Amino acid sequence: MKLARERGIPIYHRAEVLAALFNRAETSIAVTGTHGKTTTTSMISYALACLGKNPTCLVGGDVINFKTNTLLGKNRYWVGEADESDRSHELYSPHYAVLTNLEQDHVENYPRFSDLEESFERFLARTIYPGAVIYNHGDEALRRLVERSGCPRVSFGLTPEADFSAANIRYHDFGSTFEVLENGFYAGMLDLTVPGQHNVLNALAAVTLLAQLGISLEEVRAPLAGFRGARRRLEVKFSSDDLIVVDDYAHHPTEIRAAIDALKKIGKRLTVVFQPHRFTRTRYFFKEFGEVLSSADDLILTEVYSAGEANPEGTGVDLIYQQVLGAGHQAVRVLDKMQVSDYLSQRKDSQPSVVAFLGAGDIGEVADEFASRFKSISPA
Fold it and tell me: Helix, strand or coil for residue 94?
């Protein structure tokens, strides 16, 4: 980079390059929002690929079915995950904008919620027609924002008021089965092999978008049933009758709640290992972290992953630890991340359990190391 500057060679942000290519597509689909972007983008990409549409896809994490985060297809369909964390989503001009939700998160870039709303207003103003905004009807702030934009819009959600909704949801281990309603009328059934209510919403977003492209629910059923998820999104690293090890990117209270709710439906004792991500987020959300993490049966906290942030206020994981204790949850301890695997391995569990590693830092490496201990002793 230094040499490029010295020679006067232009330097572009990764998002600028991707957006420049994306904005030239015949039909462009941008997925953004606070939570669920990667999984929703992955679902749409996988469905289009399975249906022979030969899409070009740029996902924010590896799609397990693809074993990569990128598909280089034709220019007919481009699917991209547009990251709102650094405002780079404002570079995209999509035909179809899929908005999963809107919630305060990256306080280092959006000190006020109104800053986030204004950024999404600018994003919506860049949409291209013909096209539409696909949005989560159950998110009140998002719904108001989309309605004010005046964009053509189609909604998805968990209530019949949405254009596409889910009914009679039945959860089973790592999946669910539910009815899809279109404008309140039965349209068909969907089976998922990724867990939790949040993935029902992600699937509804995908179904709603694909319907705008003329793809029927019946065509979508098999691809979504075969979708195995994205890396570090409730990814199973090891599974036996006695132990399931899960790795997840959840780093916001809402994401943690969704992950814990999904894992509790398995019906086994749940141990959560949580690595807070960023000092700014920890200080802003420590009360909410304490509340949602208290729903785990056992909790292990590690020190904050800085993500390169300075820490002038001396923020630490103790803020969350004290909140958990204050909520009356005693099965909590703080460990150095390098101690976690040994502690869990030496612990004697009297019942089948799920151990979930949550966080956007390097806690996934600990999940891999812990899971590898059991893979090496499992029968072939």
Answer: coil
CA distance 46 to 196: 19
Of 37, 237, 268, 337, the active-site residue reads: 37
CATH of 235-375, one of 3.30.565.10, 3.30.2310.20, 3.40.1480.10, 3.90.190.20: 3.90.190.20
37 is catalytic: yes
Contact 130, 164 (CB under 8 A): no
The per-residue pLDDT for range 168-222, each reduced to its tens digit, is 999 987 899 999 999 999 999 999 999 999 999 999 999 999 999 999 999 999 9
Question: Active-site residue among 81, 84, 90, 255?
Answer: 81
Question: Which residue out of 32, 34, 38, 127 is catalytically annotated?
Answer: 38
In the block, residue with structure tokens 């009758």: 241
- Verify whether residue 81 is a known catalytic residue: yes
Domain ranges of the chain: 2-226, 235-375
- Give 49-86 pLDDT, tens digit per residue: 999 999 999 999 999 999 999 999 999 999 999 999 89
Q: What angle do CA 205, 276, 362 make, to 5 degrees?
A: 85
Given this model, what pLDDT does residue 380 score?
43
Tell me, yes or no, if 315 is annotated catalytic: no
- Exposure class string for 137-163: b at 16+ Cβ within 10 A, else e: bbbeebbebbeebebebbbbbbeeebb
With helix as H, strand as E and coil as C, how does 161-174 read? CCCEEEEEEEEECC
Q: Are strands 96-99 and 77-81 parallel, antiparallel or unpaired?
A: unpaired
263 touches 236 (CB < 8 A): no
**Residue 129's pLDDT is what?**
84
pLDDT of residue 350: 66
Q: Which stretch of 73-77, 136-140, 374-378 has the lowest confidence by average pLDDT?
A: 374-378
DSSP 264-297: HTT-SEEEEEE--B-HHHHHHHHHHHHHHHTTSS
Closest by CA to 331, choosing from 300, 288, 286, is 300
Topology of domain 2-226, CATH: UDP-N-acetylmuramoyl-L-alanine:D-glutamate ligase (3.40.1190)
